[in-house]
């Protein structure tokens, strides 16, 4: 059995300012044109006061940082890492259009028998507020 490709404590990050085009392109791809994301006047009347990014868009950014976390593994032809799920995804605070988010992906556990790694994920906004948490699971699949 080959050594594992990541180590507990490995950290990767990804930062991005969430723009209007991100939200509208995501809405177009998914068909989710909820007024929470696309109608400024509607949201100005809400307690939030402005439009929010889709939670599923934030999950997409988790996928981005997971790819960064395993980029160094792509030269290894013995196993292919694939996402097999998310556990405990929680949207704690809204992410508004114009917010800059930082996604932090930390390898938290490795199961050598199952060839699986688990990462704890946190997303903070530009003010350091924790807006999303999750666990992400990768399966390391043999290429033989």
Write up this protein.
With 144 residues, the protein is of the alpha+beta class. It has helices at residues 20-30, 35-38, 40-44, 55-69, and strands spanning 11-17, 79-91, 100-111, 116-124, 130-142. Strands 1-3-4-5-2 form a five-stranded antiparallel beta sheet, with helices on one face. It is elongated. The chain starts with 10 loop residues before the first strand and ends with a strand. The model has no long low-confidence stretch (mean pLDDT 94).
Write a brief structural summary:
This protein is of the alpha+beta class and 144 residues long. The protein has helices spanning 20-30, 35-38, 40-44, 55-69, and strands at 11-17, 79-91, 100-111, 116-124, 130-142. The protein has four helices and five strands; from the N terminus they run E-H-H-H-H-E-E-E-E.
């Amino acid at each position: 059995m080959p050594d594992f490709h990541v180590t507990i404590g490995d950290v990767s990050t990804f930062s991005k300012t969430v723009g209007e085009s991100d939200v509208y392109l995501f809405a177009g791809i998914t068909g989710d044109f909820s007024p929470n994301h696309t109608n400024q006047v509607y949201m100005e009347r809400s307690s939030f006061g402005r439009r929010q990014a889709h939670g599923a868009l934030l999950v997409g950014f988790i996928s981005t940082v997971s790819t960064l976390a395993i980029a160094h593994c792509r030269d290894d032809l013995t196993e292919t890492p694939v996402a097999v799920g998310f556990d405990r995804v929680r949207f704690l605070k809204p992410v508004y259009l114009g917010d800059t988010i930082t996604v932090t992906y930390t390898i938290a556990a490795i199961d050598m028998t199952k060839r699986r790694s688990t990462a704890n994920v946190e997303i903070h906004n530009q003010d350091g507020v924790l807006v999303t948490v999750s666990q992400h699971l990768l399966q390391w699949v043999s290429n033989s």
